[in-house]
Hints:
By secondary structure, the protein is α+β, with helices and mostly antiparallel strands. It has helices at residues 2-20, 24-38, 72-75, 100-109, 142-187, 191-206, 260-268, 324-347; strands spanning 43-50, 53-54, 59-62, 88-91, 111-121, 124-134, 210-215, 224-229, 272-274, 295-303, 306-315.
Amino acid sequence: MQRVLRQESLLNAITNTIRSTHSSEQMMQTIVETVGALMEASLCVLQPTVGGALGPQTFMYRSPAMADADAAFSTHVDQLAWAVSEVTVLDAAAAGDLTSQQQQLWQGLDIRSSILVPLVGAQEPIAVLALHQCGQLHPWEGSDMQLLVTVSDQAALALVQTSTYEQVQALARREQLINTLTQAIRSSLEPEAIFAAITQELGQALQVDGCALSLWTANAEYVECVGLYEPPRVEAPKIDDAVDAAVPLPRSQVPIHTNPVLQQVLDTQQPVALDDLSQHPEMAVQESLRLPARSLLVVPLIADGQILGSISLRQTQHPRSWQSEEIELAQAVAAQARSPSSSRASIKPCGIKRPNSWP
């Protein structure tokens, strides 16, 4: 009776999760917490699949007994799940099949038994759900495995539906933003007004700490900032307070030929997405006028096969994983910005020493 009650509670909780949220991240966190608690697991990890392999993002539940687990646990949580094609049960006797790092983690957490369940939707792997029991052996019964398979099927279906919903919403936001920018370009003959609208609309749409549009060419010495958006919540140094139409746009102190990000843009003519600049010290740009970026996305403006400038988006306080739809949106906006950029470039050469601190 207890097993039946637990099964009903778990399925009801998953069903309520499906109905109550349209965010895949919130859904995955709720799923891992619900399954972990109702299955009485010490640890429960849900790791989504990206490009056929497990991605870096991890959702986790740990029981109250594991609240004081070693701090090393948090840094190696991605080692608690791996890709499987079917339900896989692992006990202490099978720990020899783990990597040396996993074996150390298993010993440190005193993991006695584990079960991994793949989440498959539309015949494609979506994620892996891993449950671990620490401190005592917990034999996973057939009913447990059957229940987890049923739950994983429901969770996979919910995640597919949510992902589809998010894609539709992203497409709608993209179309709305492009329409707004198109109207701004058509309604104004002033390039400065157009550039200001472009950076503000894109910056607000992607909720970044800053968005800049700069004009430059391969032969220029510096970039020229022609549009800049920074939300009020971002605190900038006093020298840059209250950037508006009456205050000159900031200038760059780094020549283009020494800027590794812009050099990569020149070489590839493709967007450069850096999720965490602390992991890429070779791409760091030394600037003194703006807060340093922690995460950076630079999209080139290209006309007739030549780069006319770039749109830069940044996060200053934390890393950010730039999603493919975000990069595509920035590229679509860059395509809209080419027309006024071309006109501005034909009147005033890019690269004079009045540029921006942004790449």
